[in-house]
Amino acid sequence: MTSMPAAGTRAAHPAAPMPARPPSRIEAWLLVLAVAGALLASAIAPADRMTWFMEVVWVIVALPLIAWRWRAFPLTLLLSCLLALHALVLIHGGAYTYAETPLGFAMRDAFRALGFDAVRNPWDRLGHVMQGFVPALLARELLLRCTPLRPGAWLTYLCIAAALSFSAFFEMLEWWAALVYGADADAFLATQGDVWDTQWDMFLCLCGACASLLLWSRLHDRQLGISR
What we know:
By secondary structure, the protein is mainly alpha-helical.
């Protein structure tokens, strides 16, 4: 007969399982140094200090948080690399503002060379693809390690919903910034004259989340030690 926990006590929750393939010590340090180095370099002379802070604050918060929890909750190598890549996209956008990023102009010129009628700097579009591409996999790892959910339709739905929820919250942040700072927030909003910019942002987040789950789920399962 199973004993019940005594009144006033809580049943112990099992610890989240460790991933089968976390980054090695060298891999982890390389990722940290790449992100921290880019962040420090971007802070020296950003194009707009307020825009820089609003764009990179996620990195400033996430990097020490992940480091603090690393011993108890290391992430998979795949998720760690994607988080570092997302951080670099944010940092580049924050350093130059999304409408003026050099890599964005290089992308625009490449699209033009391929025959596309590219007018705007597409770094903002890339940022919103990444806003679905990486958070969807982050949600997947947290749900698989911290809840009874297993790979399947419900997990896929919740990962996409989590990414879209974060994207919607970010759009509200842009709205609040516009209300508080007015024209001074234009560089942060990065609409570049597109009246449908918010709708494009949400759609690209959805595309990024779906693409990430289609592309990475099997590899992610292997790195988590989940057999199908």
